[in-house]
Amino acid sequence: MSDTNILWIKGGRVIDPAAQRDAVGDVFAVDGKIVKDLSPEQRKKARVFDAKGLVVSPGFVDIHVHLREPGQTRKETIETGSWAAAAGGVTSLVCMPNTTPAADNPGAIQWILSTVRDRAVVRVYPSGCITVNREGQKLAPIGSLHKAGVVALTDDGSCVQNNEIMRRALEYAKMFNLPVMDHCQDAHMTDGAVMHEGEWSLRLGLHGWPAAAEDIIVQRDIVLAETTGAHMHLQHVSSAYAVDAIRRAKQRGAHVTAEVTPHHLALTDECLRDYDSNFKMCPPLRTQADREALIGGLLDGTIDVIATDHAPHTDYEKDVELAYAPFGITGLETCLPISLEVLYHGGRCGLAQVIEYLTSKPARLLNLPGGTLAEGAPADIAIFNPNETWVYAPETVFSRSQNSPWLNKPLKGKVHATFVGGQCVFEDGKIFPKGEGREPMTASQQH
Q1: Which of 79, 143, 229, 343 has its CA 20 to 30 A from that of 266?
Q2: Model-level pTM greater than 0.70?
Q3: Is-catalytic flag, 274?
């Protein structure tokens, strides 16, 4: 009989960029931690997973996820979002505070953490608001939020327009060693905008969103980061100019980091030619030149990590005229194959480098545990086949929402199993929900 506290993953290609490991071998875990080896007695009791022909990597770390709870549970819940994460190989995620009500106080953070303990099958770390109710007028209680357990501050979905308030936020955040994560958007330039301002917005007759609206705030944030010495993290970068500005800031030694989403790496504004609202993003998909700049910025280290900006919406919200549809798409379950398509299968970089963008780099960026299979690390593990093709069909989707341009499309790169703390939370299309007596379930069973 196997011991659920002992895990033996056999014969996979183990890729752990943080430990510079890339070789066929075994991974062992005892009581939720990675160990160097098992004793003969432990091997007899271990739960054995045959990973022959598969890649074994640290579980993915996604630092930009919208779980929608509290208040928007028709779109997603902490539980269903954690299921989607597990199905995508994500074992740790940072949830955004643009909930209803906003997570701008310790009570909201404590409620989120309590719900995570009861329902989430992966590790969920809350972020807190920069300003009260994300209105950009008054600083949230940053010290109290830190004490309550937030790992970062952000008004994601809203950009703090007042430069003085953002400066003070950075100064206070630095006192508590908290990164400030900013959604870079000059709201005065984007009112009513639907897509990137350029050739395709002109062709389609749609109100354009100029790249300058992002670029101006990126430059503002860089100046404030250099002024205060605080850690400024720039969310979902989308423009070539922004990439260049970040590159120059890093060369000067500014404490600035940045992320890019899989959809901005893979798609352009031309995708909106049929007015499909599943291609309506915030920030918008931009030009091929911008896309190439994002890939180049990721590969040369200007952009630090890949993050999904998982943004679930109901079908009835998205199935309207493009101007009225909300921005955003789901991303947790498709992050790996899309990243592989652009970077690995596209010949841009090796498999280990893609894994690094999804594991050790985001873990280090926010000082989170995990991101490695080194001895003593949490036994958070993703097991996948980078070359296996599968269809992202509605019956496979664990998220409560299905607003994705990749729905019903073939994808290359399939997660077979996900372990969190040495416990299997996803295996071959089935999730293992938290709660005594709950049986494994497929995605189709929850819809």
Answers
A1: 79
A2: yes
A3: no
